[in-house]
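Researcher: Please translate sequence to structure tokens.
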Amino acid sequence: MDIDPLLTLACFGIGIVVGLTGMGGGALMTPMLVIFFGIPPLTAVSSDLVAAAVMKPVGSVVHARHGTVNWQLVRWLCIGSVPAAFSGVFVIKWIGNGEQVESIVRNALGVALCIAAGGLIVRAYMRLVARAERRDGQLPPDPQGKPEVTVRVGLTILIGAVGGLVVGMTSVGSGSLIIISLMALYPALKASQLVGTDLVQAVPLVASAAVAHLLFGDFQLSLTASLLLGSIPGVWLGAQMSTRAPGGIIRRALAFVLFASALKLFGVPNQQTAILLGLSLLVAPVVWMVVRRRHGFPALARSVTRSSAQREGSPVPDAPPLS
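Model: Translation complete:
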């Protein structure tokens, strides 16, 4: 069994992002395997899911110990996600075979990455709006203890089912898509609870998809071993950091990387890719500064201390902020 040191090192960095933000596993790992290491898309999805089935519990244990998991949400999400994730590989097989399957998986992965990148932007905007409303007295301040949420069972199961199917087909979504849906449905949850709940619900979800890909996908043991050797220590370190380190900048960088990966998966030529990425680097910060000003914040974000955060009504930084 051959271990690729370069691949292992890259997976260590991705593992840190997963533990720190609760997202980016499949959304970064699978495109990296396809684009930079030339792994066939279906093989990349199968091996990444098996590796994630081992990697996810590492970060989940840390969050469970810190009490940042809403177990009710985990239960209802899994009712929808586990069977849907197992079905994902059958949907791929039903659609086609051979090169047709590889093309479908590649395009589906590109679409999932675009959705994930867009979701990160939407989530940042939602957090900014919530901060403005709390500052202006339109919303109550964030609770200092564990907020109580009323579980919306039907919608929660639906989120799990849709997210599970996407994960089973592309390995993307166990963090980047589901956590955004949870934030929209349960805005009262703290950042740390969103990350912890998402990581824990992803364990049975990814395990179900991994079993299906082990049986019917294109799993490679040597590839998965390289992924695990790098990602397990990385996700443990990231999860330890997530209880006290801000993740806003990482999420913005993650959105950029997801967008770039999607362009390459869609086969956009290098010149056009460079132009689109350059424009996004130039335009996006300006647009965000305008949005901040429209909601009464300084164009450039400043370091937020505990006291100033409470005065503005923004979340106290006990966990990675979601904006």
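Researcher: Any highlights?
Model: The chain has one domain: 5-312.
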